[in-house]
Write a structure and sequence with these properties.
By secondary structure, the protein is α+β, with helices and mostly antiparallel strands. The chain contains seven helices and seven strands, in the order H-E-E-E-H-E-H-E-H-E-E-H-H-H. It has a seven-stranded mixed β-sheet, with helices on both faces. Strand 5, helix 4 and strand 6 form a beta-alpha-beta unit. The longest helix is centred in the C-terminal third of the chain and has 22 residues. 40% of the residues are buried.
Amino acid sequence: MGSTNSKGVSRSGLASAVIDACRAMNDIGINQGKAGNVSVRFGGGMLISPSGIDYDALTPAKIVAVDDKGDSKGSWRPSSEWRMHHDIYRTREDANAVVHTHSIHCTALSCLRRSIPAFHYMIAVAGGSNIRCASYATFGTQKLSDNMLKALKDRKACLLANHGLICFGKSLDDAMALAVEVETLAAQYLAALNVGEPVLLTKRQMSDAMEAFRSYGAQPESVSRAGKAKK
């Protein structure tokens, strides 16, 4: 693989972004210790956090390059979950970054093997009317990755039974933001379950929400930064 990605960002720059994301996961409370992992698409493959290295000890040189065949080179082994990242990039052209966490509330729901239903319209942020829970398989295995891909059909996030959360985005910032949002939804859903069964939105209501999300956050191109500054 080359030294830059398709947008001209250097390997070192992308590796540093992966490190920043790993540390941010713990700082904002969506991961603990060395449990999670982060990757970005790079060339025909990816750059991914290494296996079993404390985030504070990471350097750009320790971020592992994995090619499109799943082969890695260098002194450091990729995360044990590299297969899930690899298969997302292999099957989803809209994925440029992947975040896997053991966030508290997502993991709690995954241990109940419960998907997150349409209890809130923000479920649509993950691409559909629910956030599925993938069937259980041993961590690091191809079976787990296969189960994940089924749960991610037409989605950008899913729970992993008795394990945690995985999600992707068009950028690392997007993937991190989605991980935070899904963890928030999991916490809200569990809080509602403590009182009773939440009232779920209808298919029509969720369809309307998903349609609204197509333009969510978009700003008119005709409004310049200079124009905003004058107001």
